[in-house]
Amino acid sequence: MRDVAKFADVSVATVSRVINGKGDVNPETRKRVEQAIEYLHYKPNDVARTLFRGKSKMIALFVPDIMNPFFPELARAVEDVTNKYNYTFILCNTDGDLEKELTYIDTLQQKAVDGFIIVSSTITDEMLKKISVPIIALDRFFHSELASITVDNYQGGREATEYLQSIGCQRIAHLCGPESASNTMERLRGYMDVVRDTDWFLSSYLLSCNYNMEQAKVMTMEMLRNHPEIDGIFAANDVMAIGAMKAAEQLGIRIPEDLAVIGFDGSSVGEATSPTLTTMAQPIYDMGTRAAEMLMEQIQTQVAPKTIETFPVHLLERESTKRKKVAHG
Amino acid sequence: MRDVAKFADVSVATVSRVINGKGDVNPETRKRVEQAIEYLHYKPNDVARTLFRGKSKMIALFVPDIMNPFFPELARAVEDVTNKYNYTFILCNTDGDLEKELTYIDTLQQKAVDGFIIVSSTITDEMLKKISVPIIALDRFFHSELASITVDNYQGGREATEYLQSIGCQRIAHLCGPESASNTMERLRGYMDVVRDTDWFLSSYLLSCNYNMEQAKVMTMEMLRNHPEIDGIFAANDVMAIGAMKAAEQLGIRIPEDLAVIGFDGSSVGEATSPTLTTMAQPIYDMGTRAAEMLMEQIQTQVAPKTIETFPVHLLERESTKRKKVAHG
DNA sequence: AAAATAAATGTAACCCGTTACAGAATATAA
DNA sequence: TTATATTCTGTAACGGGTTACATTTATTTT
Lengths: 329, 329
What we know:
The structure is a homodimer of 329-residue chains. With 329 residues, chain A is of the alpha/beta class. Chain A has three domains: 2-44, lambda repressor-like DNA-binding domains (434 Repressor (Amino-terminal Domain)), CATH 1.10.260.40; 55-151 and 284-312, 3-Layer(aba) Sandwich (Rossmann fold); 153-282 and 315-321, Rossmann fold (3-Layer(aba) Sandwich). Chain A is 45% helix and 16% strand. Chain A has helices at residues 2-8, 12-20, 27-40, 46-53, 71-84, 98-110, 125-129, 153-166, 182-195, 213-226, 238-250, 269-272, 284-301; strands at residues 58-63, 88-93, 115-118, 135-138, 147-151, 172-176, 206-208, 232-235, 260-265, 278-281, 308-311, 314-316. A six-stranded parallel β-sheet of chain A has the order 2-1-3-4-5-11, sandwiched between helices. In chain A, helix 7 (125-129) links the parallel strand 3 and strand 4. The radius of gyration of chain A is 26 Å and the shape is elongated. Chains A and B meet through helix 4, helix 5, strand 2, helix 6 and helix 11 of A and helix 4, helix 5, strand 2, helix 6 and helix 11 of B. The structure holds a DNA duplex (30 and 30 nucleotides).
């Protein structure tokens, strides 16, 4: 910058004014400075700016694990928005580990990160208090005074279950995720509200299996062996649904004829399976986009309204439930 | 920091010495400073350090699109190493777009990023010249004087094709990716070297379809209709292989009985399909790890050897090729 | 005990921008 | 013409660390 100033025969202050378009600068001087910048290929040092301003134009996204097929799309959405606003995007895999989250929070704040988008079921209010910049809770709602973006998990759970009924399923099991996650608990509640008072419901129709395909497969296999009457499975995410389909396949149970399977998420793996997976699709990309936009707004306005936005889910009907519909009840 | 210095009744220089463990500090003074730090919950401002040192402890990974199932695992590996060294990880989706790559390069260098790991087929030497920090080329090799990590794509292409022959396939087609990518071209070369001189090979057994599932499906469908004699397909990545399987399914062609399919990558989607997908697996996580380790080393040592590491691929035999083996030839 | 060496600490410049403030030059108003 | 407002530009402090160098104090050596 000194070089540019010297070259254009002005002070650094003037160069700064030209770069930022702030303050009055004589058009001729401006031109001279711009030429100097051009000539010297000058690029301002963003670190110095950050130091002065206390803002880095960086935001971070916390996800449990990018290898879970739900998150790449989310991350992509966030990055796209981030880019649009000329911010830089930092991806953090937390594995749902408090220690890791804590380390990230410290490190990133020392780097003057301007905001966080957090997918977490473990994070505590105490930890959040350590964060002095805007935060958006995404996908999972952890109780606190935060803006958050989720889907209507309860409604999704209901609809998925009712949908299975509507295509004729008489005995519907549910594979649910870890208890710590608010989203899976809501889906479970939706399921329960539909099946609780039926004459067929058994608590052994309920399996808890951590969003993991292999585990879902093993547990489903056992359940199907003990309960061959089951003719519908609602899994709380797509990965578990795929596990369930594999279990059925291995047992020679046909999908969708003998057993209908519906997942949750609408992640793209559901298209890779045969039959393709029917699922309660979340508008993943839109949610990521909205979270990022909301964060940008909070960063810009310095205001942090406790907006809670709930996106609708929609039924993505594919092959794993393709039967002739039967009259309700 | 001034506060800490005041509180401990020393100068900022001494505080800095304590923090960095450099220079001689009286044990008592050190203790006093440490207590002050503790008491005031002092955390050094990383931006100021970065400004002084010219190093940010951040590295960036360029990938075409994190939504492609090959990349999450790679990104995860890089992030894990990044973390281990207390660096911060920046993920950049380039869409193979030169403009985007260029923008990222500028922005990140202004932020004093310490190194790049780049997956790209488009990037030019001219662009690389703009980068003044270590770079590792990953997955795809773009000609330049760079350290790079790839797999033996040629060998993989050969082996995949020969494997199909070994299980009895008589007419083997190949779905290859975009011409711009060095890796897919090598796989093609491997395939060609096996089939070129056979008496059955036809140029129409070769399909070019951009790593895209839907396109692969459509093109395969057409090919299988025109060439029902095809009994083996080698796809240059898993996503296309899945497209091919779907095409077969839709045409009522059984896999693996009538048609064997092998993919390339060993990404986790291959486990979600039915039948599960046989594939030439790359050690994705290891490659990411190695690339990151190599980058860390170059950052630390300031030396940039033009190491070229080629990882082996290995056959991951799953169901899409499960037949009784037949004697070679 | 004087001299030499080592340890402990502080002062101030530096990293590279931004901006408050002041001063000079020019334009407009009285 | 003088007073006042405007435009333009520079000086210097600041953000929050690091470190070369100087200085003081303690320890060893002779």
